[in-house]
Amino acid sequence: MNRLTVEEFRQSEKLPLTVVLDNVRSLNNIGSVFRTADAFRVGHIALCGITATPPHREIHKTALGAEESVEWSYHEETVGCVKDLKDKGYRVYAVELAHESLKLDRDTVEVDRPVALVFGNEIEGVQEEVMALCDGFLEIPQYGTKHSLNVSCAAAIVIWELFKELKIKS
Question: Cα-flanking dihedrals φ and ψ of residue 112, to 5°?
Fold first, then answer.
């Protein structure tokens, strides 16, 4: 099945993509994001604010070990994390319903340099102070009665869309 060992994964080429979790409270969501990040060789996950960190039994339940393969860091404040990413040359997008947000099904997402995706709290979304620092906003078009997705589902969709643009060698 061509599965990499943890060591092979750590040494493999990664997407120039960082996922920022801004005060995500659900341990299962955090674990699911790790698992998706592993599947698409995301370069890094930044866990911010109240977002829990590995090792944790509940994160492991959904990550299934991906918390051991994907590089991650903890940041007390999301604002500081985003400022650091921008200083390193990242283009930062909040995945959030916002005025002038780019629609994933029709707009072009700029991937000419490393990208960071900010996903917010399950109730409050991305903090306003963080959104003010972002280079843009990404929106997943939805056609039902709800106007939001579970944060781990949203992360999977957006990571997949950027994976197709950022392509790495398999």
Answer: -80, -5
Which amino acid does the sequence have at 146? K
Q: Which domain holds residue 118?
A: 6-166
- Please write the tens of the pLDDT for every residue from 33-77: 999 999 999 999 999 999 999 999 999 999 999 999 999 999 999
In one letter, which amino acid is 2? N
Against a cut of 0.90, is the pTM above it? yes
**Phi and psi dihedrals of 107, rounded to 5?**
-100, 155
pLDDT, one tens digit per residue, over 74-89 is 999 999 999 999 999 9
Sequence length of the chain is 170
Q: With 0-12 CB in 10 A as exposed, 13-18 as middle and 19+ as buried, what is 162?
A: buried
Euclidean distance between CA atoms 102 and 108, whole angstroms: 8
- Residue 1 falls within a domain, yes or no? no
Residue 160 Cα to chain centre, angstroms: 11
Cα(136)–Cα(126) distance, integer angstroms:
13
- CATH of residue 76's domain is 3.40.1280.10
